Amino acid sequence: QNPTEVVDFLANACLLTPMTAEKRQSLVNFVSTLPPCAEWANRKDEVNAKLTALLVMMMSSPEYQLT
To answer: 35, 46 in Cβ contact below 8 A?
Structure first.
């Protein structure tokens, strides 16, 4: 429902090692420009691009590399 939940959901799904609070907040800030969930269906390209970039950042992190 909000950027924090998006980051937490993907972090829980992809990372075995927790992120630092600072890294988590920077990812939340990155996805804070996502439109409200109710608009995702109408703005698929924008949402998919932002979520793809978020996943790439997570998978490039040391926390992902340790899994």
So the answer is: yes
